[in-house]
Amino acid sequence: MPAPPPGAVTADLKAKLTAATDAASGDVVLIANSDSVPSDTTQTWVWPWYPSAGQQVLGQSNEPALTGKDVWFSFTMPAQATISAPSPFGTDVSWRVCAPVTWTRVTGSTWYTFTQQPAFAKGRCVSGTTMPANGSQILSQVSAGDWHNAGQTQINGQPAVELTAAGQRIQPGSQPSASANGTLITVQLWVNSQTYLPIESDVVVTQPGHTPSRITSTSYTFLPATPANIAKVRPDLSGLTQVAAPQQ
User: Which of 49, 106, 180, 203 gives 29 a disulfide partner, CB atoms 3.0 to 4.6 angstroms apart?
Assistant: First the structure.
C-alpha cells in the first residue's frame, strides 16, 4: 500500500499510526538518545511500548558518560500521561511521569533502591520523572494536530514517512512559537512506511543566519516481548550486595 502524500496528517494516516502502535503495544523497545556529544548517548529499554492506565511499566537505562551506573525503573502508568513542559527553545519530545517511580541502581557489586515522588501544585503535576516519548505521547501529539506530513524518504535503510512539527511546543493544544531571537525548532519524526512504527526522531535548531543544527537524535528498535527481551528491563541482583540509598 503506497504511503500517504505530503500535507496534513490525514485521518487515514492517523488510523495507520494508531493501529501500528496498538499492534506493538506489548513490545519491548530500545530507545537510544544522543545529543551533540556522541559519548553522551543514553540507551533506555522500556516495556511495554504503549502502556494502558494502571499497567506496570518496567525499564532499564544506561548513561555511562554521565553516571557510570545502570539503573532500572518501574511505575504504574497514570490515567493521563503528561507531556513535559516545553524547553526554552520551544519544544520537547519527552514526557513527565506524574506517578511514583521506583529506581534500582547498580554500581559495581552493590545496589540500592529509592522512590521518586511527583509534585503537584493546585492539582496540576509540576514535577516528575522525565521519560523518552512512547506510544502514548506520539499518538497524543498526532491527535492534537502537532505534526505535518513532509513526505516519503529513506532513513537508516528503511522506507519512511517524515512527520515534522516546526516551531511548536509539542503538547496538546500548543500554538506555533519561537524564541525571542527568532530561533526556530523543528522536530522530525520518521515512521516506517510499511509498519508505521517510529524509526527515528530529531530535534533541529535553526537560528537566524546560521545553518540548521541537530541537537538531539532518538532511534527506536522494537522487539517482541519474549522472556529473553523482558529480562532486559528486570535487574539481575544475584551476587550483589544491597546498600542504603544515598541522600536524595
Answer: 49
Three cell numbers at 244?
A: 542504603
Residues in the chain: 248
Phi-psi region of 151 (alpha: psi -120 to 50; beta: other; left: phi over 0): left
H helices of 35-130, where?
none
Report residue 210 as a C-alpha cell. 546560521
What is the CATH classification number for the domain harbouring 28? 2.50.20
In this prediction the pTM is 0.78
Report residue 227: phi and psi, to 5°: -55, -40
Q: How many domains does the chain have?
A: 1
Tens of pLDDT, residue by residue over 217-238, are 888 999 999 999 999 999 999 9
Q: In 3D, which of 132, 141, 139 has the Cα closest to residue 57?
A: 132
